[in-house]
Amino acid sequence: MVDEPMQVILAQPRGFCAGVVRAIKIVEQALKIYGTPIYVLHEIVHNRHVVENLKNQGALFIEALNDVPAGAVTIFSAHGVSTAVVENARKRNLKIIDATCPLVTKVHLQAQQYSRQGFEIIIIGHPGHPEVEGTRGRIEGPVHVLSSSGEVAVLEVENPGRLAYVTQTTLSIDDTREMINALKKRFPAIRGPELSDICYATQSRQNAVHRLANNIDLLLVVGAHNSSNSNRLREVGEQSGLSAHLIENPDDLDRSWFSEKTRVGITAGTSAPEAMVRKVLRRLRTYGARRVTEMEGERETMQFRLPESLSP
C-alpha cells in the first residue's frame, strides 16, 4: 500500500489524433451509407477496443484482399497500403475508400517524388510495420528500411550522392533525430525533411510526456501493444528516468507498481479512446488515487476532411 494518497496527472494532449478520428468516422459513415458488409483491410487503427467497437457496428476486418468478394466496399486502414494492393483492389472491381492518414499520404508523395528524381530512398522506420510497408510499396526504385544508427554505418548504397530519406510518422523524435544526424554524417549530400515527417500528434504527445516527467514517479501509457506511437511514449518515459508501463486496459495494471509511487502520470496513444483512460482512472481510485488533475496544455483542433464519397 502507498504511504500517502496517490496523485494522478493526465497528460495534455493525449489520445485520439485527427487521423484516427477521420479513419473511425470513415468506417462509421460507410456503414451508414452502404450498410453491411463493409470490409476493412487490416486494423483500421492499432487498438483492439476501437476495432471491436466497429465490428459490433457491422464492419468486417480482413488481412487479405482475396477475402473480399468482388465489387464489395473495401476500406484501407489509416496506415496506408502499397501500390500493388491498390491495383489489386481495382482489378477486382472493389469499391475503395481510402482511410490513409493524410500525413502518411504526404510521406508517400514525398518518397515517390524523390524516387522519380532518381534518388535511392531510405525509410527511417520499423520493418514490418504496416505504415512502413505501405510506403515501401509506393516506391518503384531502390529502397532501404533502417531502424537504428548502427544500420547506417553498414548500409551499402548504389550512389552516395543520390540518396534521400523519409520517416515513419509515429517514431520517437529523439531517436529519429539521431538517425538523421547519422545519415547526414555518413552521406553529406543526402536529402530529407528534417523531423517534419513525424506527425504533429506524435510530437505533441511526446513533448507532453517530457513536460510531465519532472512531476511524476510513474508513467502509464494507455494504448495497444502493437501501436508504434504508444510504444514510443513508453520509451520517452523510460528515457526520462521514469518507471513506465504500456497498458491496454485496467486489467493490465499491477498493484505492486504503485507501492512507492505516489505521483502517477497517464497519457494515451493516438489510437487509444478516452473512455479507456477513464476506466484506468476508476481502477486507480480503488488503489487509493484521491486527486486527479490535468496538466496545462493546448488542446488540439486539427481536423481532416472525409473523402468526398462519404461527405454529407
Give me the side-by-side strand order of the main sheet. Answer: 10-9-11-1-12
Main beta sheet, described? 5 strands, parallel
Q: Please give the alpha-carbon distance between the first and last residues.
A: 53 Å
Average per-residue pLDDT, rounded, comes to: 95
Total count of helical runs of at least 4 residues: 10
Keywords:
4-stranded parallel sheet, alpha/beta, Rossmann fold, flat, Cobalt-precorrin-4 Transmethylase, domain 1, single chain, 5-stranded parallel sheet
Structural write-up:
With 312 residues, this protein is an alpha/beta fold. The protein has helices at residues 18-34, 48-57, 83-91, 102-116, 130-136, 149-154, 173-186, 200-212, 228-239, 274-286; strands spanning 6-10, 38-41, 59-62, 73-76, 95-98, 120-124, 143-146, 163-167, 218-222, 243-247, 263-268, 289-294. It has three domains: 6-16 and 200-294, 4-hydroxy-3-methylbut-2-enyl diphosphate reductase, catalytic domain (Cobalt-precorrin-4 Transmethylase, domain 1); 18-101, 3-Layer(aba) Sandwich (Rossmann fold); 103-198, 4-hydroxy-3-methylbut-2-enyl diphosphate reductase, catalytic domain (Cobalt-precorrin-4 Transmethylase, domain 1, 3-Layer(aba) Sandwich), CATH 3.40.1010. Strands 10-9-11-1-12 form a five-stranded parallel sheet, sandwiched between helices. The chain has a four-stranded parallel sheet with strand order 3-2-4-5, with helices on both faces. Helix 8 (200-212) packs parallel to helix 9 (228-239). The protein starts with 5 loop residues before the first strand and ends in an 18-residue tail after the last strand.
